[in-house]
Records
---
Amino acid sequence: MSARLIMKLRVAEARFITDDTLLLRLVHPSRPQLPAWTAGAHVDLVLPDGKVRQYSLCGDPAERGSYTIAVKREEAGRGGSAWIQESLVEGALAHVSAPRNNFALAETASHHLLVAGGIGVTPILAMARSLAAAGASFRVHYCARSAPTAPLLEELRDICGERLSCWFSEDGRRFTAAAIEAPRDEEHLYACGPLGLIDDLTAHALSLGWSPEQIHAEKFQALRDEDFIPEDFEVELSSTGQRLHVPASSTLLAVLQAHGVPMRTSCETGICGSCICDYSAGDVIHRDAVLQLAERSHRVVPCVSRARGTLTLAL
Ligand code: FES
């Protein structure tokens, strides 16, 4: 793992907000202010084995003294959430990166439509808070199994009032993409939640005439495509003209690093966005969960994505 500022933050508050979701408020042990962030940003939390997990900041971006995240216990996960819930008690130290935002609000939007699925509410809550504070036009759909299992529901209700629609499947109100209508001018759609929800929403929105630039999504799962068979390809660095071969057995990131190209990395699973770089030509096979649709024409995530033929990187 390379070059991303990691801070040791103290757990000032740790409390369960649903049966399986722990809210953590993190502060710097000595500094009154933490690096600034904007709604939609996440931090990396580094586990004792060096692996990292991404968590969206769900507090108030205007409050610089602490970061708030919510960690859901993933029973089928890789153990990171279980370790966090058991170990990050009040007073413990957590290794946390500076915030990064791959899911920012569009400044030019005239109306914002936000969709949260379950724990995907975390960035949506920060967005709703920012939009409400700015007096912006917005609406939120929140989908979950039931009200008691929906994290941060009361906070979202307080911020949104009538602008919030709740969809609780146990109450017979299951959210479907059909709840989304054709876009108004300069309307932007933001969705955070399970892959299936995001894929359905994106496909439906595109079919209704939303442009890729108007659709913003945040997925916390890497792409599952076990049937994918990697193939060799070539890469050219536009600054030097250097050509490198990427064998099927390696990643583009590994090849770049092996040839001394400085790359920021963190998750190495296509989720965090640390290694994103630009390309100017080539047929990219995108396999990440971080780039927005509109970015895919010129940006690539080299820890997971590949190409056909030759890819020219703006490096
Ligand atoms: S290292 Fe996280 S997306 Fe590549």
---
Amino acid sequence: MYQCSAAWCKSALAVSTGLVFPNRKKTFQESNRGSLSPDGQKHISSIQPLRKPSSPVTASSSTREGGARSNTRNNKLLCAMRSSSLLLLLFLTFLVGVCEVQGASDFRICAFNLHHFGDSKSKKSNVMHTLTRIIARCDVCLLQEVRDTQGKAVPLLLSRLNRYDAQHDYKAVASERLGRSSSYQEQYVFVYRTDTATLTGQYQYPDDRPGDVDAFSREPFVVRFKAPKTDIKEFVLIPQHTTPTNTTKELDALYDVLEQVKTMWKTQNVMLLGDFNADCGYLAKKNRKKVRLITGKSLYWLIPEKTDTTVRLSTSCTYDRIVVHGERFARAIVPLSASPFNFQLEYRLTEEQALEVSDHYPVEVLLKDNAYNVSFNAATSMSLYLFLLSHFFF
Ligand SMILES: [Ca+2]
Ligand SMILES: [Ca+2]
């Protein structure tokens, strides 16, 4: 069996597999540190670059050295080929594993600020088509800035959705119209697939907390869903579209809503989501330490900072957020799956066409399904098996 002797080769193998065998580790370390002579002194010649011999050599030793160099080159070439093959094999196996895992776990929760969604937008067929395609990607989708005074736009969207995606049955649950002034009000609407999620509770936060009455302009309309095929099984969603000029205050007050809901429904599995306006000029860095939703324990902000959730090319702010509470919920999230959905890029729209739909991208996250860990372990085992197989037969 060919032995991979070069240090970088062993390193590549160790890194690519995540495995370090004890006997190999010793050799790798020795080759890096230099060998020890019988008198215990350390020689570093083994990690120095090859140099031309300084003294003349005989023809026979030159031939031997030439042969040795040729062998070394061959060894290196074989080593490189073997490592490349291994890396490719492992990479492909990993990809297959990831695809299986993601394919099996695509329970998607989305939050989308539709920017003045009402009668006018619902009459634009191209806009409704794009909205339908976006929402049809989600198992549960929170819609914000719904200003459907006639009460026709949401039912129209829902019927388009059910026609467009006949594989699922979509329903919606909406809050009352919320807002301090009667001239400007918004609704929260949750659209969900009835075949993957069941609504098991809804609660309009009354916003009458003693000492902090009327903290919100658009009080959270809290819902609870049962989703038996997900790893988490049941969870609560707290939506919020903050008032830009009052972002710090409202984000902090969301912590009180979270605490109340945890007690009321005896659950730790809570997600807070929506257009928090939690960036740029609306949430100054110095104010972040005042927000318990940021400083509180066991809260995970999933949309990475510096992510652009705005459609306009001229702005780049992480306004829209997804936050989960509790380690159990954090573990039930597909790693690195939280991100905005750039529908402009995906559906090849101009900036103007995209802005007709909304000035925000939706943000979304995937929940692991209950077979996730089994699939992931199977993929890992297969990687290990192929690694061992290739180790013995290459
Ligand atoms: Ca209020
Ligand atoms: Ca932007």
